[in-house]
């Protein structure tokens, strides 16, 4: 609330909005100060809700950090499951991020580096009702192993689908099993991007670069899927790409760093 004192108008610090930051997060020593700042920024936008929608460009501008630095520290929040990201495709062909501030952290997340005070712990005895603990442990191990196998299979399918699509569209012969390529794809997926997002980036850059002798060499995973470029490629408007609503001339700047 604005307050007027001796002819000077003072604006309350909360008048533009505010959010809540969990103590668990602020005391988590696995998180960098940048990761905590990013969460605080999202929380301020969310207010009393659990979702926020600021653009990456706005976040980086107002936190005064680069996109590479932002993605690096946002990844920690995703891995610790403090936030989730859902992408919404707009009618214009662009997309935006929906950030969800997770309210319940799964019990599989390690909290060993989170300082917890003033918590009373009651030890409860559990009677043995004929359940074999070794059998339970074995079942848990098998269950975890099955989940890991399923996750690995899904990732391998995503690698193949994306790289096969690139090879088809760009007439290239990249391998989906290459370690560097898999690392790039996995990192973007962990940031919330989908296989369809990869295909859209490929389509747009093929439309822009395939017949350009200067730029067709950059139709490669190391350029298309790198952290500092991917989201920009996804949202740009490219002449010749049928997903655009209007024809826009693509201008290349001299300082593009591939």
Written description of the protein model:
With 258 residues, this protein is mainly α. The chain folds into 2 domains: 19-101, Arc Repressor Mutant, subunit A; 137-235, no CATH class. It contains 9 helices and 5 strands. It has helices at 23-26, 33-46, 56-63, 67-79, 133-170, 179-190, 195-209, 221-224, 227-235, and strands at 3-5, 8-10, 51-52, 83-89, 95-101. The strands form 2 sheets. A 3-stranded antiparallel β-sheet has the order 3-5-4. Strands 1-2 form a two-stranded antiparallel sheet. Helix 2 (33-46) packs across helix 4, helix 5 packs parallel to helix 7 and helix 7 (195-209) crosses helix 9 (227-235). Pfam families: HTH_36, Phg_2220_C. Residues 162-235 form the Phage conserved hypothetical protein C-terminal domain. It comes from Kurthia zopfii. This is Conserved phage C-terminus (Phg_2220_C).
Descriptors for this entry?
single chain; about 260 residues; mainly alpha; Arc Repressor Mutant, subunit A; 3-stranded antiparallel β-sheet; 5 strands; about 45% helix; about 10% strand; elongated; disordered C terminus
């Amino acid at each position: 609330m604005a307050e007027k004192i001796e002819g000077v108008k003072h604006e309350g610090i909360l008048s533009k909005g505010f959010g809540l930051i969990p103590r668990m997060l602020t005391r988590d020593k696995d998180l960098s100060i940048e990761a905590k700042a990013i969460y605080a920024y999202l929380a301020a936008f969310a207010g009393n809700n659990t979702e926020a929608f600021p653009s990456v460009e706005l976040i980086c501008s107002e936190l005064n950090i680069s996109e590479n630095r932002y993605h690096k520290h946002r990844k920690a929040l995703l891995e610790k499951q403090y936030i989730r990201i859902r992408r919404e495709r707009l009618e214009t062909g662009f997309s935006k991020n929906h950030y969800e501030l997770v309210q319940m952290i799964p019990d599989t997340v390690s909290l060993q580096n989170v300082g917890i005070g003033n918590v009373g712990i009651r030890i409860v005895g559990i009677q043995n009702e004929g359940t074999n603990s070794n059998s339970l442990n074995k079942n848990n191990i098998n269950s975890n192993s099955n989940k890991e196998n399923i996750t690995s299979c899904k990732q391998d399918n995503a690698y193949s689908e994306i790289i096969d699509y690139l090879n088809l569209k760009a007439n290239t012969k990249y391998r989906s099993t290459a370690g560097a390529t898999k690392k790039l794809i996995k990192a973007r997926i962990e940031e919330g991007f989908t296989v369809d997002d990869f295909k859209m980036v490929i389509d747009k850059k093929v439309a822009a670069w395939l017949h350009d002798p200067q730029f067709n060499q950059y139709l490669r995973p190391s350029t298309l899927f790198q952290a500092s470029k991917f989201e920009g490629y996804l949202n740009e408007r490219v002449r010749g790409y049928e997903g655009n609503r209007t024809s826009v001339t693509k201008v290349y700047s001299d300082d593009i760093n591939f």
